[in-house]
Amino acid sequence: MLRFLAAFALIVLGLFTAELTPPVQQAFVMPWTRELAHVCAALITAFDGHAAAAGEVIRSTSNGFAVAIESGCNGVEASIVLVAAILAFRAPWLRKLAGVLGGVLAVQLANVLRVITLFYLGQWSLAAFEWAHLYVWQALIMVDAMVVWLLWLRWVRAPAPSRAAA
Amino acid sequence: MRLRDPIWRFALRVLAWLVPCFAAWYAIAPWYDRPAAWLARILLDLWHDGLVDAMELQARLVTYVTSLQVTEGGRTGNLVLEVNPLLYGYGVPLLAALLLASGARWTRLVLGAAILLPFQAWGIAFDALAQILRSTPALAAQAGLQGMRGEVAAVAYQLGSLILPALVPLALWTAWQRAFLEGVLLRPER
Fold first, then answer.
1. Reported pTM
2. Residue B170 is nearest to which of A138, A146, A153, comparing CB atoms?
């Protein structure tokens, strides 16, 4: 347990500090955030003709409401926490790799849902938008990361199926 | 998604508990945020002796009147900083929902809320310092935020706003509810 906690804390701090450095921001975080905005905009415009995207901003063409995807809204921090929890746990490297890839995908899917719901929530009520943006979705994204970690944990600890049972 | 799966069932219970927990947290926040604001004031004074002259908690905002002198339009006054403490306190309803969804004792909820206070104070204090950092180099220098100390304050602010508020409740829950984790959630499927 202590080994896990120490490794987890070190990986979180290392990845998080790296994320804040200008080279990582330029090479990874900003392009990632722009791509996330494009994916969200593509999904929204597929069903709603009154939405347009420019850079990290998604705007409603009917009422002018816009959301900008900034650091902290791109799911990178929740992904860092999940990746650290997977890497810090003793498991075969292939299973860690599968956990990291599947886990980051799951966190990003939840994040796309976050951006889309916030875009529509903001057009309905700014107070509801503030609440969902600042508090509720912050918690939900981490719950999502934790559920993914629990599923992964159960998978890596499951005994391999025996030949007799096959 | 299989609803018979204990992990998914637990996730749904957490979602259901989050609604009343967020409502209760918002109702008690004006009282709960007070000790966090005090602790943050202590942190600010530890960072730079005598930085805070006065503190007020009103309309869900913490206001710190600093000893930093700011001149605007030929008039000089003290720099005033406002912080929304709720930004760093949403870990309380999250922890409460996790504990209630896993059948934990209510004493853990109270203890957890107390343990989360210093982390909320961290967020409030470094939010205030980040506001000084973003103002002018002269004010940042007055607050002892030059060079490496400024970098440390910036990283601490990001850590306190993006990672700690949600991570600490999850860590506490994992540490406290290990029996539930092992016996219910991670039990091999039959």
1. 0.90
2. A146
Residues A154/B188, Cβ–Cβ less than 8 Å: yes
Is B159 near chain A, with CB under 8 Å? yes
Distance from C-alpha of A5 to C-alpha of A13, rounded to nearest angstrom: 12
pLDDT above 90: residue A101: yes
> Using one digit for the tens of pLDDT, what is the confidence trace for B91-113?
999 999 999 999 888 899 999 99
H helix runs in chain B, sequence order: 6-47, 91-101, 106-135, 137-142, 147-158, 164-176, 178-180
Q: Report how far residue A89's alpha carbon sits from residue A3's, in angstroms, rounded to the nearest whole number.
A: 9
CA distance B168 to B118: 11
Contact B162, A142 (CB under 8 A): no
Assigned token pair, B118: 């210093």
User: Is residue B43 classed exposed, middle or buried when 0-12, 13-18 and 19+ CB atoms within 10 A define those classes?
Assistant: buried
Query: Nearest CA of chain A to the CA of B159: how many Å?
Result: 8
**Best residue in B170, B172, B177, B189 for a mutation probing chain A (most A CBs within 10 Å):** B170
Q: Which amino acid is at B102?
A: S
Classified as helix, coil or strand, B102 is coil
pLDDT-based confidence at residue A166 (cuts at 50, 70, 90): very low
Determine phi and psi for B186, rounding to 5 degrees: -100, 10
CB pairs under 8 A between A and B: 71
Mean pLDDT for B110-136 is 95
Cβ–Cβ < 8 Å for B132, B48: no
> Which pLDDT belongs to residue B168?
95
CA neighbor of B190 nearest in space, from A123, A154, A71, A51: A154
* 8 Å CB contact between B113 and B45: no
Beta strands, E only, chain A: 51-54, 57-60, 66-68
